[in-house]
Task: structure prediction
Amino acid sequence: MSVLEKIDIFRQFTDFNDSELEIIMPYFVAKKFKKKTHLLDVGKVSDEVYYLIKGCIRLYCEKDGEELSTYFFTENMFAGSYDSFLSRRPSKVAIETLEECEVLVLTHEAQEKLYDIFPKMNEFIRKAIEQRFVLLHDLFISYLLNSPEERYLMLQKDRPELLQRIPQHQIASFLGITRVSLSRIRNRLAKK
Amino acid sequence: MSVLEKIDIFRQFTDFNDSELEIIMPYFVAKKFKKKTHLLDVGKVSDEVYYLIKGCIRLYCEKDGEELSTYFFTENMFAGSYDSFLSRRPSKVAIETLEECEVLVLTHEAQEKLYDIFPKMNEFIRKAIEQRFVLLHDLFISYLLNSPEERYLMLQKDRPELLQRIPQHQIASFLGITRVSLSRIRNRLAKK
Result:
């Protein structure tokens, strides 16, 4: 991946100039992960967040031996267990790749160093965490107010590519329903 | 309220010195609200957040004509419909005071000006929104993983004063149960 491509990514939130990018880029380490790579266990403190250049990363928690998918990150998103990364408490969610992934890794240590040497990083991370907050709030409110069918329709509208990329049983657990219920919803909508 | 008291509040997240506090304080306007003051309707864009010096503020959404309490803010917290305040979209939650409140109001316009004239504000707001993110994530995960009784026990452990300050029907709606179910939980726990 060329430096120019990385620059585009970091101009998403903040108007870093080229000399500023020279400072921050060494703190983001390019890595590739294979599909189904386990990046974090429930109960461990998260030390890394992943800027997704390519691929898909899933968060999930566990209840009664079942996996509940809580979020799917795709290209141009910061993926991670932010809750644990920020609070330094054991993570309530696990992280795994669903596809082969190309990422830029920012460790907690690197982030803290960046705040020290380059205060403008606060603006960048503020905007990243604000975006993440809004997505989490949308998800929380949709759990409170919407039926699984309504949430399926929202997913279809807002992130249609996910329905193609993610295994059906993980979409179902994200909606809080069984795979059979998901099939029923899809069939019902197909007849409309 | 003296300036010294305000200073304590703003040193919670960031080491502002006295001359920095002189810059930012005029952007935070002290106000008092009576109990049951309605601060925001669902569907309106939120233009204000409230740093709570004294009192209690509730967020709630509406479902089938019922109010569902989604959060209670008390002293030393930034209360508000952050989702709408940040995204500039119509709010999914309403805001009201549950007690007489003393607050410092930061408008969206004042916040944007502060970012321009005083970049260190990014660090302060980053930390405030990170704290808010962690609280929202805790709430979201507890909805997914815990029973109403478990959530009642968490509330009792983490924020015992809320159980005294908040009307029972609002605690019940926050836990996603009826007032009768809440009474049953309390009776069951009292017998243990």
Q: What stands out?
A: The longest helix of chain A spans residues 121-145.
